Amino acid sequence: MERGRNLSKLLAASNHKMHMDLNLIIKEHALHFLPAKSLFKFRGVCRDWKLMISTPFFAHNQSLSFSSVSGMFFQSPGDSPTFVSLAPESCGVPDPALKFLPVPVHIVSSSNGLLCCQDQTADRDYYICNPVTMQWKKLPKPSMEHGSKPAAVLIFKPSRLNFVAEYKLICAFRSIDFDDAIEFEIYSSKEDSWKVSGEIHFGVVKLIPKSGVSVNDAVYWQSSNGSILAFDTTKDRSQVIHGCYSGNSNATLGEFNGKLCSASCSRRMLTVSVISNIYSNTMQMNSMAKLWDDKIRIPLSNEVLEASSYDPSVLYAGSETVLVFSGLNIYLCDIKTKETRFLVKAPRAGQKVVPYVNSLVAL
Predict the structure, then answer these.
(1) Where is the F-box domain (predicted)?
(2) Last residue of a domain, which of 26, 50, 66?
(3) What is the DSSP string of 17-54?
(4) Where would a tag sit more exposed on the chain, N or C end, judged by fewer CB atoms within 10 A?
(5) Domain end marker among 46, 66, 86
(6) Are 185 and 323 in a shared domain?
(7) Closest C-alpha to 49, from 28, 16, 27, 21
(8) What's the average model confidence in pLDDT over 128-139?
(9) How many domains would you assign to the chain?
(10) Which stretch of DSSP H or E encloses residue 197?
(11) What CA–CA distance (Å, rounded) separates 137 from 195?
(12) What is the C-alpha separation between 33 and 23, in angstroms, rounded?
């Protein structure tokens, strides 16, 4: 009898130790991989979790660990933005219309949890914010005129060694000194100032607002003639890359395995093309060098094709995920498995979208 009691005590102690070990494993090795909305819910688990999730150190680790696209901000000209979550139970923002900002804004760009917005009034001031924490910063006035629809790209790369969020805003604008020329102005949060690049690119037609993406240390914009303007932020140099995939003007730029990619839907097929040689368009004539490689081809299902009378469009392309827009439906295409599934309905068609990562990054 006594032996049975001792065995029960031993099992109880062992279970308690297992529970403590599991609790420690979740705290130390799992929580920071979750999106912000889930973490806000988990603050109610216990006082210990609440205190830990509320620390700047945890927010920093989460911004390093969680980088999945969590949803899309939709916005029509003159309207307030709306947010469509790809996983409503775990990803979201408390104020999708961004009313916590002091003025109505247009969302211009996003990067790893931060949004760049522009004042809708004549002031056209830029704001950087995190819609999860509702922290924001007004940027100083740029020295050049960027217009009401700036070709601006926000670059924020979380750093393990830097607890302060350091980011850059790269704006391509029409030169006032030279016809048919594009210049670049760059804001650095580290310096808290703007600097006009010495680089001037001639012969580029109008850039498409919100088409810009950053890959590594370069920024790429689509132009109205189907070419791509590239600007290397480290070398302070620009060049034109000709030919999005098949010259498709509806192609969307993104990132695939650390390289620039172009994704488009045509002839019942989603195609993701990756740039193979950025310098091939400067080689001698009749060179056999290929500019784009067709890496992925995914047949679109009847469900996707029948949702609209037009070819589906690509909202986002990055890593192993492509988001396709057909009718008012958003579908997720998994590049690895080549499977497509319905995600959510969008507010309405014809809106510009900005992808968003549900991060706790602090400003």
Answers:
(1) 22-56
(2) 66
(3) HHHHHHHHHHHHHTGGGS-HHHHHHHTTS-HHHHHHHT
(4) N
(5) 66
(6) yes
(7) 27
(8) 97
(9) 2
(10) strand 193-202
(11) 18
(12) 15
Residues 336 and 211 both lie in one domain: yes
End-to-end Cα spacing for the chain: 63
Tokens 């091939």 belong to: 280
Q: Could you tell me if 120 and 78 are in contact, meaning their C-beta atoms sit under 8 angstroms apart?
A: yes
- The residue behind tokens 């297992």 is 18
Q: How many CB atoms lie within 10 A of CB 196?
A: 15
User: Does the pLDDT at position 286 exceed 60?
Assistant: no
State which amino acid sits at residue 243.
G
Residues 173 and 284 in one domain: yes
Residue 296 φ/ψ, nearest 5 degrees: -135, 135
The SS3 of residue 362 is coil
Which residue range forms the structural domain that includes residue 26?
1-66
> What DSSP state is assigned to residue 237?
E
Taking the model in full, what pTM does it have?
Answer: 0.87
Q: How would you class 299 by CB atoms within 10 Å of its CB: exposed for 0-12, middle for 13-18, buried for 19 or more?
A: exposed
Considering the domain architecture, whether residues 125 and 147 belong to the same structural domain is answered as yes
Q: How far apart are CA 172 and CA 185, in angstroms?
A: 7
Least confident of 27-41, 45-59, 278-292, 333-347: 278-292
**CATH code for position 265:** 2.120.10.80
Q: Containing H/E element for 283?
A: none
259 shares a domain with 339: yes
The verdict on residue 363 lying in a domain is no
Secondary structure of residue 99 in the 3-state scheme: coil
The predicted pLDDT at position 219 comes to 96
In a domain? residue 362: no
Residues 52, 109, single domain; the answer is: no
Tokens matching residue 308: 């609209």
